[in-house]
Structures are given as C-alpha cells and as structure tokens.
UniProtKB/TrEMBL annotation:
Residues 27-105 form the Carboxymuconolactone decarboxylase-like domain. This is Carboxymuconolactone decarboxylase family protein. It comes from Flectobacillus longus. Transmembrane segments: none annotated. InterPro entries: AhpD-like (IPR029032), AhpD_core (IPR004675), CMD-like (IPR003779).
Length: 114
C-alpha cells in the first residue's frame, strides 16, 4: 500500500469513528476547520499553503501530509512547495528538519501517484 493511500485510508477511517461519537464540540471543531479553508478574501490555495507552513512549524506530520495533499490537488508547484518549506524551516528552526524530510518524501509520493 502506498504512503498516500495508507495515510488517506487511516484518516478517513478514524474521522468516521470520531464523528460517529456524535460529540457536538468535536463536530463543530471539524466544521470550523473545513470552513476556515474555504475560498474567501484569500484563495483556497493560499490558505492551504499557509496551513502547510504552520503545520510544519508546529511539527504535526499528519497535518503536513493533509495540507500537502490539498496543495497538490490545488496545483501548487514544486517551486512553491520548496518556498513554503524554506519559510517553515526558517520560522520553526532546525527542529523542523525531520518533518521537512518526511514532507519531501510525501510530496514525491503524491507526484508518483499522479
């Protein structure tokens, strides 16, 4: 199973289980997250690129993978991804480097599945 498929399948399965608990607060948080990245004054693409940079700085590999997937879907280029990576690594410091490695691996996996 590919890295991308494994991540997406697990994420979908666990989100389904979480939402099946019918917890109002959790449902509202998920909804807020969805609505935050909708087209607005900033484009969806811009918001996803911001989400990627923030996720790298916060060192959340699952969030990095999710935002990389959305960036890929929205046509973010290799050059744009490299600049996002550079900004995130500058802001986050060298502790971000291990997450940068995994992000590069996942970006390559997305491209290979195309």
């Amino acid at each position: 199973m590919s890295l991308v498929t494994e991540f997406n399948d697990y994420r979908a399965k666990m989100n389904e289980k979480i939402l099946a608990g019918d917890n109002k607060v959790i449902k509202r948080i998920f909804n807020l997250d969805t609505n935050t990245y909708a087209e607005g004054a900033l484009s969806e693409k811009t918001k996803e690129m911001m989400g990627l940079a923030c996720s790298m700085v916060l060192r959340c590999d699952d969030c990095v993978k999710y935002h990389l997937g959305k960036c890929f879907e929205l046509g973010v280029t290799d050059a744009e991804v490299q600049e996002i990576f550079s900004v995130a690594t500058l802001i986050g410091g060298t502790i971000v480097v291990p997450h940068l490695r995994r992000a590069v691996e996942y970006w390559e996996a997305l491209q290979q599945e195309q």
